[in-house]
Design brief:
- The chain is α/β, with parallel strands linked by helices.
- Helix content is 40%, strand content 14%.
- The chain is elongated, with a radius of gyration of 40 Å.
- The chain starts with 7 loop residues before the first helix and ends in a 35-residue tail after the last helix.
């Protein structure tokens, strides 16, 4: 075709047809070139690509006046400077020297300069991953999908444990931040689910695991003790070099993408509670792990066995139960059963729960909450204090714990209607009576349904009406039939014995 370069393939085809006896016209036609071009390349001693001369510049260089004088010194000073920044600097210091339409030309020229004269670039050295040698763990934010718990947004992280060789993984929902408790609790659960311990564990520069300020031996004491218990060597990536933790970083993307698709197939991103959400993730991850049984078996064969017992994966606090039947842990106020008032409790602080001990006896488990920056955070269970509150119902109105004594939204609406309709003292008695009914008969869900129906009908809730609806007394005393025992059965116990001789002394 006119204006097109003759290719080496066309040249070879033309020469082959000539050697097979075709005329020059026929051979040129079969090669897709003109007869004139065929006569020209017949005399050539080399391939067309070897004879081709580089075409010179056909138009003036728009960078001729600024490249050597201005742009190159700027790039030598700041090698990674972008072309847009160079253009902005030129426009500020030398207006009119370069037009915006020359930006693409400037980008190509800078790329060529970096490749030929720029500074050396960092090289990534890919590593081998022997079976059973390295695990990696990290926290990732599930920004690709929004999950709700009982209709409310759920702010959380995912702890991700990953084996470098087989790709076996463990994922745990983390309600708090990247804490020591979340790290060690997640690692310990992963190791015991796996059934072995790798030689090393790689993290990024987590403050939960490293102090990061000392250049020597700066592993935090708790994390170092945890790794010593399992015989794991802790390692971390260098500061600012995220690709050294790249195996798990890449796995984050695959995990979140598959979770997003799994939620889409599920048809809903709402879960009844955190346990249901964790169960969904665990099932999803288990299916992915099942496809790696062979590789995991190779890993386990090279791993060390688990120790005979687990180690500490929690933080400790010691608190005293106050006269208000509360304890304060990490700036959060929790109610506890009133029978513990005055007791000194040892609290094991996990990521999602508090386990309270009185001496060596576990007496209570509480859901853990984080401090709210907008104000004090209270975690209230009305069952802990209802026994005292029902004796002093007027204390409910001004109690600092009042907002926590609405276990469901319908209870809050019930209080608002009672407070707006009834005399203040009676309103408190009725609402506290309803709470007491829910606590003593363990019928919170039934009572909530009853209150929904009463409010929908435009009626006022009443304690006795509610009691009859959700906890009615037995209609009649049950008939108890007691069978009289036949006393003659005891006759068989008597045995006739001769009276022994009695000797008089």
């Amino acid at each position: 075709m006119p204006g097109e370069w003759i290719t080496d393939r066309q040249y070879r085809r033309y020469m082959e047809r000539k050697q097979q006896g075709d005329t020059q016209v026929l051979a040129a036609s079969r090669a897709g070139i003109s007869e004139r071009s065929a006569r020209r390349i017949s005399a050539a001693a080399s391939l067309p690509s070897q004879c081709r001369k580089a075409r010179g510049r056909t138009r003036l260089d728009p960078l001729a006046d600024v490249w050597d004088e201005i742009v190159v010194p700027m790039l030598r000073q700041v090698p990674m400077l972008r072309a847009t920044s160079v253009m902005e600097e030129l426009d500020r210091e030398h207006p009119g020297r370069l037009h915006e339409r020359h930006l693409r030309t400037l980008q190509r020229r800078i790329a060529t300069w970096r490749a030929s004269e720029g500074p050396e670039r960092e090289v990534i050295f890919r590593q081998e991953h022997p079976p059973g040698y390295q695990s990696l763990c990290d926290f990732t934010e599930p920004a690709d999908f929004d999950v709700t718990i009982d209709g409310l947004p759920f702010d959380h992280l995912l702890f991700h444990f990953w084996l470098a060789f087989s790709g076996w993984q463990y994922v745990k929902v983390i309600e708090g931040g990247e804490s020591f408790t979340a790290l060690t609790e997640g690692m310990q659960e992963a190791l015991w689910q796996l059934g072995g311990t790798p030689a090393t564990n790689r993290t990024d520069r987590l403050s939960a695991a490293y102090r990061n300020l000392s250049p020597h031996d700066d592993a935090a004491a708790g994390y170092q003790a945890f790794c010593d218990h399992y015989g794991i060597e802790p390692t971390r990536n260098n500061a600012g070099v995220s690709h050294e933790n790249g195996s798990v970083e890449a796995a984050h993307g695959h995990l979140k993408r598959s979770l997003r698709e799994g939620l889409a197939l599920r048809g809903s991103r709402d879960f009844a509670d955190v346990a249901a959400y964790q169960a969904f993730i665990s099932e999803h991850v288990a299916r992915r792990n099942a496809r790696r049984r062979g590789e995991v078996a190779l890993e386990l064969a090279q791993m060390k066995p688990l120790p005979s017992f687990k180690t500490t994966d929690f933080s400790l606090a010691t608190v005293t139960v106050t006269r208000t039947s509360t304890i304060a842990v990490r700036d959060v106020l929790y109610t506890v059963p009133s029978r513990l008032i005055g007791s000194r409790l040892r609290v094991h602080i996990y990521d999602g729960r508090l386990v309270c001990y009185l001496g060596n006896t576990q007496v209570l488990t509480l859901p853990r909450r984080r401090r709210n920056a907008q104000g004090p955070t209270h975690v209230v269970d009305y069952r802990h204090i209802i026994g005292s509150l029902v004796k002093k119902p007027q204390a409910f109105r001004r109690s600092v714990l009042r907002d926590g004594m609405f276990p469901r939204e319908v209870f809050r609406r019930t209080w608002d209607i009672l407070d707006a309709t009834l005399e203040p003292r009676r309103a408190c008695r009725v609402y506290v009576g309803l709470l007491h009914l829910a606590a003593t008969h363990a019928c919170e869900a039934l009572l909530a349904d009853h209150l929904e129906a009463v409010l929908a009908a435009g009626d006022l809730p009443d304690v006795e009406v509610a009691r009859a609806a959700v906890a009615p007394p037995p209609s009649a005393s049950p008939d108890v039939s007691i069978k009289q025992t036949d006393l003659t059965i005891y006759d068989s116990l008597f045995q006739h014995q001769e009276t022994p001789d009695v000797q008089a002394f």
